[in-house]
Specification:
Order of helices and strands: EEHEHEHHEHEHEEHHHH
CATH class of the largest domain: Alpha Beta
Largest sheet: 8 strands, mixed
């Protein structure tokens, strides 16, 4: 059994193939190009009012200003992902299916209030707790905040640019998780910040948190990772071309087929994101870059 996520269409997946680790993200992903900034959102007392374990969707109550704030973030180009510890599952207060129902209710209320379908991209939750009542949930898990596992997994799943992203939450553990993932952070409410891991900013409420994020703007992406991604792509193309040249005598037809095969990966990613116009255009751009880079490498090799 693994920690789970709920997508915006309400389905739950069991990421059993996800690495059970929170090792640095950049070390794990080499060629994948991360394009989208995201706002990671704590759930309880950040988006909804909840002073205890909540497994009943009829008790969901959005906090003031949340739908409007999320819509502003979405319009600014941020994806929205909820990351929440759900220790109530480990304590036997409710089940994982109840968590999913609550998340569907939250998503529905937000969409209705904001007048926009699919406002939240995905919900991630961790049902484990080191002092769980239920033995099957009694363990430390890399998805449990303050560890950054949920944020790192979302970045892998959704091709997110963590360096351009934020974590908004009402507890120091939210700030710790965001900083560990390489994000800027906003602490909302009256909780005292941890002196060891201070937040980027502090806000009285969610509306002010959104104001701070939008005022800060999106940082320019680091050129280093982009160069690494391009270098990795170049090496992959060169290796593939050399292999084809040895096997097939370097025929133009074989090389052309190799180009098409390489470009297929970002093209498929673009097709899968048809419902997200910006992501679709970015992945199509990656496809074009892959093709142009491949052609340039071959032309250079023929000089």
């Amino acid at each position: 059994m693994e920690a789970a996520s709920t997508s915006k269409n309400g389905r739950v997946r069991n990421p059993s193939r996800s690495p059970d680790s929170d090792e640095p993200f950049e070390a794990r992903e080499v060629i994948l190009i991360h394009v989208d900034p995201v706002i990671f959102l704590d759930r309880d007392n950040t988006l909804i009012a909840n002073d205890g374990d909540l497994g009943d969707p009829t008790r969901v109550a959005l906090l003031e200003g949340v739908p409007e704030g999320l819509l502003r973030l979405r319009d600014a180009g941020y994806r929205l992902v909820v990351v929440t510890n759900q220790g109530g599952v480990a304590r036997g207060r409710y089940g994982e299916e109840d968590v999913d129902r609550v998340h569907r209710e939250i998503a529905g209320l937000l969409d209705q209030a904001a007048g926009r379908r699919g406002l939240i991209d995905r919900f991630y939750y961790c049902p484990y707790h080191p002092e769980a009542t239920l033995p099957e949930y009694r363990r430390e898990h890399p998805w449990r905040k303050p560890r950054p596992g949920m944020l790192l997994q979302a970045a892998r799943d959704l091709a997110l640019d963590l360096s351009a992203s934020w974590m908004i939450g009402d507890q120091p553990r939210d700030i710790d998780a965001g900083r560990a993932a390489g994000c800027r952070t906003v602490l909302v409410g009256n909780a005292e910040a941890d002196d060891q891991t201070p937040p980027t900013a502090v806000a009285a409420d969610f509306t002010e948190a959104v104001d701070l994020v939008l005022a800060a703007g999106k940082p320019g992406r680091s050129r280093g990772p982009e160069r690494n991604e391009i270098a990795s792509l170049r090496r992959a193309v060169e290796d593939l071309t050399e292999s084809i040249g040895v096997r097939d005598g370097g025929s133009t037809r074989a090389v052309a087929l190799a180009f098409m095969g390489l470009a297929a990966f970002p093209f498929v990613a673009a097709i899968l994101m048809l419902d997200d116009h910006e992501a679709f255009l970015r992945w199509m751009l990656v496809t074009l870059v892959a093709l142009l880079a491949s052609i340039a490498i071959i032309l250079a090799g023929r000089k």
